Amino acid sequence: MLGSRIAAMTTLTRLLITVFILLSGCALVNGQKKDKDPLDRVMSELQAGRTDKAIEALDDAIKQNPKNADAYLLRGTLKMQTDFSQALRDLDKGIELKPDYGAAYHQRAMMRLVNNDGPGALKDLDAAIEHNYKDDGVYFTRAQLRWQAGEAKAALLDLDEAIKLNPGNPRAYLTRIEMLLFFKDFDKALADLNYLLNWYETDPSARPVRKPQEDAVPKSESQPFMVAIAQETSNEAPGSKEMAPAIADTYSNRGLIMNDRGNHVAATSDFTNAIRIDPTNVWPLYHRANQHEQKGDLQAALADITKAIQIDPKNANLLIERGVILLLMGKDQEAQAEFDTFLKLDRTLWQKRIDDRITAVRKLLPPKESP
Description:
With 371 residues, the protein is mainly α.
């Protein structure tokens, strides 16, 4: 699962940014509705789905009031897809005018990530939290950046906070499991593995849901509306193709812990569930083949490893394992033919790997019964 860190960081460049227009009723002046506010038109255009017209209205609003921070922040958000440089300049200006607006720092952090500026994004996320924008997405994103920067303990603390704010986001659990396995904290990792797998297999209506955090959205009485930006943290449901590989890895990781603790029945069950959820993942097949080897069921082991090789025919670990199984079955010539593929490339390297694997497997085999 450690390799998923790279995938997680790559995902940051594909974040979905949602713009929330938060109404404060209406802007009031001495208890009366304020007429012809330039931002009223912006709101109307957005509600009608006319983004280009909304940007034009924001241009006019900024001309009328060059110190309108909300207008810059909203225009910057709307221009992200069409004019990235201008969008970033607008966010810079909005933050300059309203330096205590935490949501703006979060939005700029997301833009910096798209521009591959990890250090700048991390600095902005720090500022967002410092200015009381404490959305779970902020902590989750900062955790990944801290992890990438080698700040593993700080990253783990951020994930703890993200999960407190949104206990229904499975990706936060996946990332925390990865970190706990890195720290070899298997008891805590197992607790998260159990929770996540129970979440996946449970009726969606029974799952925890994200609770809005009052302090994550800034409030104001002086503006007709404000812009808050949040990272999309939708809580995926079972059966989604996107979640299947991660859940299969989760079952597989729990199976490995069960195996290390001597609970081979539970380990085999977890590997079987991993295969059920993602039949294209070769590693649960590999691990289940190992379980069959330990029980002495070499025919079942051969069936699993052969199926894995059909999925990934050039995987050296799988091919060597099949050779080992064939050797243990007494099919020496077939085994040697499997090994020769690698020995021709580098006999020193592959012979040691083959010998080490054969030795390890033979130690785990049950003793042969006396005739």
